[in-house]
Amino acid sequence: MKNYNFEEEKILKQLDEKLSLIIAKIKMNTASNPDCIFFDNAEFIQVMNISKRTAVQWRADNTINYSMVGAKIYYTLADILSLINKTKKIKPYVYTPRYI
Description:
By secondary structure, the protein is mostly helical. The protein has helices at residues 6-32, 41-48, 52-60, 77-86; strands at residues 38-40, 67-69, 72-76.
């Protein structure tokens, strides 16, 4: 039979509740303002599933906006979403009648 320390369990429960509250606040803030979420170059490359050279080319061609702090490159979520939306291909709807 295990011996439980109820005080430790209570502390863990309080920490879990506080962590859940922090996560909820972060999700609320990030959903409301994508300009405040930054990705560094490595994260951007991973998210977009591209090579480093492609990222360099996109920056050179002004395909994506970026910020440079020292030697570090950052992209905002808003800029990434803008890139995806402006290159989105919308397939035109073609009506095809169904015959019974």
